[in-house]
């Protein structure tokens, strides 16, 4: 199954009663495994979790630490871009050249490098004091 198919399947499990906007994500780790996530909303709105965050949590819980490919999809008119917070979360575990595929449910896709989605990123090197 492709990342697209797996993200699609995860999306069907999304819990999004407040926005009605269901999102699915799938990532491939350096170890070759695929991890999926869907958005999980909450009546206390800020407690909601994005699909990408769910996929990353599954990867970390399985003992993997590196994303080599990630896809996010939603039933949006244009390929859905990851939110700013998710870009930062992805950047913690992905190299700048990693390709992020944004997709619509109908299969339209747009691919961007992480570094282009999150330029001038804050990362661990910013905290280096030499
Ligand atoms: N959402 C994601 O799951 N990922 C993103 O990158 C963008 C937004 C979710 C959060 C919320 O449940 C819904 O989409 C509407 O913002």
A few lines on this structure:
The chain is α+β, with helices and mostly antiparallel strands and 130 residues long. Helix content is 26%, strand content 28%. It has one domain (3-120): Cytidine Deaminase, domain 2.
Strands of the widest sheet, in order across it, are: 2-1-3-4-5
Query: How would a crystallographer describe the biggest sheet?
Result: 5 strands, mixed
Q: How much beta, percentage-wise?
A: 25-35%
How many domains would you count in the coordinates? 1
In terms of per-residue confidence, which ranges show pLDDT below 50 for 5 or more consecutive residues? Answer: none
**Termini gap:** 45 Å
Supply Rg: 14 Å
**Total beta-strand segments:** 5
CATH superfamily: Cytidine Deaminase, domain 2
Helix content percent band: 25-40%
Please identify the top-level CATH class. Alpha Beta
What structural class do the secondary elements suggest?
alpha+beta
What is the count of helical runs?
A: 4
Q: How would you spell out the order of helices and strands?
A: HEEHEHEEH
Enumerate the distinct ligands: tetrahydrodeoxyuridine
Overall average residue pLDDT: 97
CATH topology: Cytidine Deaminase, domain 2
Instruction: Tell me the overall shape.
Output: globular
CATH architecture label name: 3-Layer(aba) Sandwich
């Amino acid at each position: 199954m492709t990342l697209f198919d797996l993200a699609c399947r995860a999306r069907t499990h999304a819990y999004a009663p407040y926005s009605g906007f269901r999102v699915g994500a799938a990532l491939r780790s350096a170890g070759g495994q695929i991890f999926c996530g869907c958005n999980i909303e909450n009546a206390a709105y800020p407690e909601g979790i994005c699909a990408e965050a769910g996929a990353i949590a599954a990867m970390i819980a399985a003992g993997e630490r590196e994303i080599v490919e990630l896809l996010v999809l939603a039933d949006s008119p244009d390929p859905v871009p990851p939110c700013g917070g998710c870009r930062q979360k992805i950047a913690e575990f992905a190299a700048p050249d990693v390709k992020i595929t944004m997709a619509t449910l109908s299969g339209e896709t747009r691919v961007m490098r992480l570094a282009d989605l999150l330029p001038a990123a804050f990362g661990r090197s910013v905290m280096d004091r030499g």
